[in-house]
Amino acid sequence: MGKAWGVHRWRRRSEPATAAGEPDVLDECAQFLGGQFLESYREDRDAAPDWVWVNVLAHASEELLATCAAAGGTPSRSSGRCVWDRTLSFLSQVLLDHAGRSGEPVSLLQHDIVVPIELQLGAHPLAPPTLVRLVLSGLQEREGSAPDRPAPTTKSTNPNP
Q1: Does residue 66 belong to any structural domain of this protein?
Q2: In terms of residue numbers, what domain contains 71?
Q3: Entry pTM
């Protein structure tokens, strides 16, 4: 039996299998497409590979992203969390904030910015700072190309220069 996106190889031995002894590929696909594959690493999130974290950012619902963003909290609260966990919180908040300011749906931002990054993960590993840079660059390019946004000006708007 073939492996769905290499997901099968990451399944933990302690996770339930189907009656035939094989992982339930349909359940894995649903988790993957719903941005919920990280749940299979609930006991040891530090062991989750980079693609699992990017998957959440690329496919999670707006509600799940809001939950991830809320988990960020203050720096002292997040000090015991792994760097990918903190990166997911930060970028979830960034996507939600951008969607709120621009009026663009979060799903469109995910599709246009994060999914292309996710698709490149098969060829290159990704570090959290690189993901942050790529997502922020994608959002910045998107803002710069918005047709209804006036071009920046160097003219002062202060009436008392």
Answers
A1: yes
A2: 20-135
A3: 0.69
> Where does residue 18 rank: exposed (0-12), middle (13-18), buried (19+ CB within 10 A)?
exposed
**pLDDT, position 71:** 85
- For residues 13 and 4, is the Cβ–Cβ distance under 8 A? no
Nearest partner of 60 among 115, 10, 125, judged by Cα: 115
**CA–CA distance, 7 with 5 (Å, rounded to integer):** 5
C-alpha to C-alpha distance for 51 and 48, rounded to whole angstroms: 8
User: Which tens digit of pLDDT belongs to each residue from 15-37?
Assistant: 555 455 556 888 888 888 888 88
Question: What token pair was written down for 33?
Answer: 């497409």
pLDDT exceeds cutoff 90 at 64? yes
Domains: count for the chain: 1
C-alpha span between 137 and 145 (Å, rounded)? 12
The string of pLDDT tens digits covering residues 75-109 is: 444 445 688 989 999 999 999 999 999 999 999 99
pLDDT (0 to 100) of residue 44: 84
Fill in the amino acid letter for 71.
A
CA atoms of 117 and 84, how far apart (whole Å): 15
Inter-residue long-range contacts of 41-47, CB under 8 Å, 24+ positions, other chains counted: 45/82, 45/84, 45/85, 46/82, 46/84
